[in-house]
Every structure is written in structure tokens, then in C-alpha cells.
Amino acid sequence: MNHEYPAVLPTMSTHAHNARPSPKRPFLDRLPDSTETHELVLKVVPMPADCNANGDIFGGWVMAQVDVAGAIAAFRKTRGRTATVAVKEFIFKQPVRVGDILSFYASVQRVGNTSITICVEVYAETFNDQGRYLKVTDAVVTYVAIDEEGKPRTIQQ
Ligand SMILES: CC(C)(COP(=O)(O)OP(=O)(O)OC[C@H]1O[C@@H](n2cnc3c(N)ncnc32)[C@H](O)[C@@H]1OP(=O)(O)O)[C@@H](O)C(=O)NCCC(=O)NCCS
After folding, report:
1. Which terms are listed as keywords in the entry (predicted)?
2. What is the C-alpha to C-alpha distance for residues 17 and 105, in angstroms, rounded to an integer?
3. Where are the domains of the chain?
């Protein structure tokens, strides 16, 4: 058997991954305006600890941030505690890189008796090319307004 091992493990360079594949959709020159119905609710920068073994940001990390962003909007609208009950599909058309500035916009799609459905859109301002923005994903998340016992409560409209 061949027991020749490399003296050092290959290192994972996050810089090597900062070059983006050409986007299918064009870069935007500016972010959408934040309005009452399409509100910028969260900005966050992914760190090296949020990477997978390829040096790209974990999809699951982005999903968690989407859940937080949607929950901020849901919390405001329902004026209290909420729980995530359902998420429609996530499609990632562009990778997210360490150091990108991510902006999360939330808009209310539907308010039911106890549930609220929020669309969250995510834009990345690229680390190496600031002032240019790419939409990286969007998702539709449904939250249920809950009381102190975790039971659904009616949303006052
Ligand atoms: C959220 C929770 C309190 C809802 O309780 P429930 O008894 O299942 O509630 P109901 O069946 O009465 O549904 C409540 C609302 O959610 C909606 N809902 C339920 N399942 C849904 C689904 N799959 N998609 C969209 N909406 C859904 C219902 O339509 C209803 O909305 P409405 O009152 O506006 O018509 C309960 O399911 C729960 O605690 N889930 C775990 C939540 C959680 O921990 N999330 C994080 C996971 S890590």
C-alpha cells in the first residue's frame, strides 16, 4: 500500500474564490429603494466560519439569515412572537462569497388569521467590486403568530 501522505493539507483560500462566475442576470448599479411594503430589514456580512469546504458560503447559512429577516418583518406586523411554519423553495443562482455585503428585503405577501407570509429577497454587494449588486436568492416564508404557550394567536389587522 502506498502510505505517502502530503506533508501539509491543502489550504482553503477564500481569496481564490472571490472571482465570480459571470452572472446570468446583469449586475445592478444600485439596491432597490426600501419602502413601507418592500423594506430593507437586515444587512449582514458572511465570515470564513460560514463557508463550506469549497470556500463558498453554505446555502444553509443564507437560509438561516432569510429566516431571521422574514421573522423581523413578521414580528413587526404581528406585534409579537412568531414561529416559522413553512418555506417555499430556495434557488441559489449565484454563489455568496466571504465579505459580500448581503441586503435582505422583506415584503408581506399575505396575512391570514394566524399566519403571515413574507417574501424575502437577498442582494449581494460584491467584496471585490463594491457598488455592484447581484440578486442571489429569494424565498417565501410563512410564520405563525404564537402566544406565550406557543399556540397560534389571531393577528390583529
Ligand atoms: C407553528 C405552530 C404553532 C402552528 O400550530 P398548528 O396547530 O400546526 O397550527 P394550524 O394548523 O392551526 O395552522 C396555523 C396557521 O399556519 C398555517 N399553516 C400551517 N401549515 C402551513 C404550511 N405548511 N404552509 C403554509 N401555512 C401553513 C395555517 O394555514 C394557519 O394559518 P391561518 O390561521 O392564517 O389560516 C406549530 O405547528 C409549531 O409549533 N410548529 C413548530 C414551529 C417551529 O418550531 N419552527 C422552527 C422550526 S426549527
Report:
1. Hydrolase
2. 26
3. 28-145
Do the beta carbons of residue 133 and residue 30 sit within 8 Å?
Answer: yes
Closest ligand 1 atom to residue 151 Cα is 3
Ligand 1 binding pocket includes 86 (Cβ within 6 Å) = yes
pTM of the model: 0.88
Residue 28: Cβ within 10 Å count: 14
pLDDT in tens, 108-125: 999 999 999 999 999 999
Let me know if domain 28-145 sits in CATH 1.10.3720.10.
no
Amino acid present at 16: A
Contact 113 CB / ligand 1 (< 6 Å): yes
71-111 per-position pLDDT tens digit: 999 999 999 999 999 999 999 988 899 999 999 999 999 99
Q: Among residues 32, 43, 25, which one has the least CA distance to residue 104? A: 43
